Amino acid sequence: MKEIVLDTETTGISIKDGHRIVEIGCIELDNLVPTKNNFHCYLNPERKVSEKAFAVHGYSDEFLRNQEKFSQVAERFLEFIEGKRLIIHNAEFDLSHLNNELNLIGKKNIKNEILDTLILARTKFPGSSTSLDSLCKKYRIDNSKRVQHSALVDCELLSKVYINLIDQKEPTLDFMREDENLKSSEKEKIIYFKKIVQISQDEKKKHSQYLKTDLKKNYFN
């Protein structure tokens, strides 16, 4: 199944204050593996970037003034995401801005299936920080190049976070179990494996005894 990891950068937080999109980044996944089929653009928002937004992404009014307007990239963007599930961190924010841009040029709201990784992370880590940086830290994902926010960089990081959030294995690794019957040439291809530890009969007996006595005593104390 093909999915799109999507992120945007804007001139500010709220569309009610007239804020617009300045960058769209999308990375396509096919069965969780990046296809190298990406969509990326900077946009002329036709208004000034707020100071707070500039501090986050660093895109100046001078730089954005020379970029295409959303109306010029809308068809390419819609064609790229058509029929694919969108993976977004804090989907409410990005979708509100994208739908606002579409409405401004007379187009309908996005109807794609949405998976919000923020909701997924809050369910998995209740009470913990679920920012992209925090999740990268939890899963030991290198986010050192994320000095400032960038839609495409954030998509790359989110694609790795997403795979971990749904308890899937990194597609760049081979998680085959080591098997004594494998040929030596096949064993050389194994990048990662978990050793299976067999417990002894004595350990099984002690565990069974623990369940019958100590566990029952601790439960009622």
Plain-language structure description:
This protein is of the alpha/beta class. The chain folds into two domains: 2-165, Ribonuclease H-like superfamily/Ribonuclease H (Nucleotidyltransferase, domain 5, 2-Layer Sandwich); 184-220, no CATH class. The chain is built from ten helices and five strands. The protein has helices spanning 51-57, 61-65, 70-81, 91-104, 117-124, 132-138, 151-165, 184-187, 201-212, 214-220, and strands spanning 2-10, 21-30, 33-42, 85-88, 114-116. Strands 3-2-1-4-5 form a five-stranded mixed β-sheet, with helices on both faces. Helix 4 (91-104) links the parallel strand 4 and strand 5. The longest helix is centred in the C-terminal third of the chain and has 15 residues, at 151-165. Residues 171-196 and 214-221 have low confidence and may be disordered.
Query: What is the CATH architecture annotation of the largest domain?
Result: 2-Layer Sandwich
Helical segment count: 10
Shape, principal axes of CA atoms = elongated
Question: What's the CATH topology name of the largest domain?
Answer: Nucleotidyltransferase, domain 5
Low-confidence spans? 171-196, 214-221
How many domains, as an integer? 2
CATH superfamily of the largest domain: Ribonuclease H-like superfamily/Ribonuclease H
Relative strand content: 15-25%
What is the count of β-strands? 5
Q: What's the story with the biggest beta sheet?
A: 5 strands, mixed
Q: Any idea of the CATH class of the largest domain? A: Alpha Beta
Radius of gyration: 24 Å
Give me the oligomer status.
single chain
Widest beta sheet: strand line-up: 3-2-1-4-5
- Spatial gap, N to C terminus: 51 Å
Helical proportion, percent range: 40-55%
Order of helical and strand elements = EEEHHHEHEHHHHHH
Structural class: alpha/beta
Mean pLDDT figure: 84
